[in-house]
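Researcher: We plan to redesign the surface later, but first we want a full-length starting point. Tokens attached.
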């Protein structure tokens, strides 16, 4: 799944920022000391005037207007117009303005009106009067573009898997930063709600963990460690379950019911498939260890889980995942029949009734720091301040 883009309504910031800076009103704003959304001490309004920083104001306004144009396109088209680079630079530029005392309090009297369309409904516009709001929406778009790039990676190759893992981790970490930035704010549109951000953060982590499993399962001439593969894909199942729980938040089900239903179906299907793969790998490990009774028990568990996934996919009309599940059902059922026949005729091992849970080995990384391109501008700013 890919996070949709948010689009800023075009508005030239040059005049309102200049008028606010040149006014006599003294306003204190909060400073973000580490560039990751943790607001701490108070910064006074700048003592300089708009003529002193005209170049900086024009740069900020130009970046925003550029984004308002290119983000109206699809992820693919906007990326061709360097939208990710521009989002990173805009975020770094906003940080520089916040550090200098420009508006970060949502106060209509400052005249700096910043409007963004909703990610799930273009008709849902929301306006705030704080540069922090623009930075929050920019963090959303960075994560959205990263999630799209991850979805286009070639998972049949090791390099493609590495790319998808890195991008998924970065997108999830970006949303974690965003969630911390807005945790004390209340926004009208559902995009920046805690429940929405938590859901997408978990989903992207699950997708990253699944890519780690897929990379390990590529083999490439090496002997597969099926127990390790089981632990990796079991972890993906667990994180998909966490995403499923987050997506069942009442606000999401109320404000984006269609999407919430689709997300829930996707997460449950993926969780069941991952669980069945974990069990199948453990069954293979038992076979390699000549533990035929345990192999049969795990294969029966695998077939049962897959049939549950098959029934759920049919009832949900998820044709792509249904095709995958049906292939896995056939493979597991065939292997179970052969194992049972061999055991009945040759090994005569007892098939255990109780089975221990498969442990999860989470390898996907979270809460990574923002990339330097998001915290440091390409060219120095406010050099005249000293």
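Model: Full-length starting sequence:
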């Amino acid at each position: 799944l890919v996070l949709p883009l948010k689009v800023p309504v075009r508005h030239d910031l040059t005049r309102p920022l200049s008028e606010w800076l040149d006014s006599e009103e003294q306003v204190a704003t909060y400073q973000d000391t580490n560039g990751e959304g943790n607001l701490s001490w108070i910064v006074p309004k700048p003592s300089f005037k708009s003529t002193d920083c005209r170049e900086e104001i024009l740069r900020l306004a130009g970046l925003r207007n550029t984004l308002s144009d290119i983000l109206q396109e699809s992820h693919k088209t906007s990326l061709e117009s360097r939208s990710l680079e521009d989002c990173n630079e805009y975020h770094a530029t906003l940080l520089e303005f916040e550090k200098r005392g420009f508006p970060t309090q949502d106060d209509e009297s400052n005249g700096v009106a910043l409007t963004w369309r909703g990610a799930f409904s273009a008709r849902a516009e929301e306006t705030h009067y704080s540069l922090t709001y623009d930075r929050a929406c920019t963090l959303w778009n960075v994560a959205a573009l990263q999630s799209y790039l991850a979805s286009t990676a070639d998972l049949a190759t090791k390099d493609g898997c590495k790319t998808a893992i890195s991008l998924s981790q970065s997108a999830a970490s970006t949303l974690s930063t965003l969630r911390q930035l807005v945790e004390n704010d209340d926004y009208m549109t559902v995009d920046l709600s805690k429940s929405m951000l938590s859901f997408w953060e978990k989903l992207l982590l699950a997708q990253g963990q699944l890519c780690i499993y897929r990379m390990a399962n590529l083999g490439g001439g090496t002997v597969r460690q099926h127990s390790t593969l089981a632990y990796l894909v079991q972890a993906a199942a667990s994180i998909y379950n966490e995403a499923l729980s987050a997506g069942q938040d009442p606000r999401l089900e109320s404000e984006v019911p269609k999407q919430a239903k689709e997300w829930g179906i996707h997460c449950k299907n993926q969780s069941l498939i991952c669980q069945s793969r974990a069990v199948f790998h453990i069954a293979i490990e038992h076979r390699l260890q000549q533990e035929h009774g345990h192999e049969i028990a795990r294969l029966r568990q695998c077939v049962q889980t897959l049939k549950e996934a098959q029934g759920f996919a049919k009832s949900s009309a998820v044709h792509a995942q249904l095709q995958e599940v049906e292939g896995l059902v056939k493979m597991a059922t065939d292997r179970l029949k052969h194992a049972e026949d061999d055991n009945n005729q040759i090994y005569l091992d007892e098939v255990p009734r109780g089975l221990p849970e498969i442990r999860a080995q989470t390898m996907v990384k979270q809460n990574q720091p923002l990339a330097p391109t998001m915290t440091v501008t390409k060219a120095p700013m406010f050099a005249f301040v000293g």
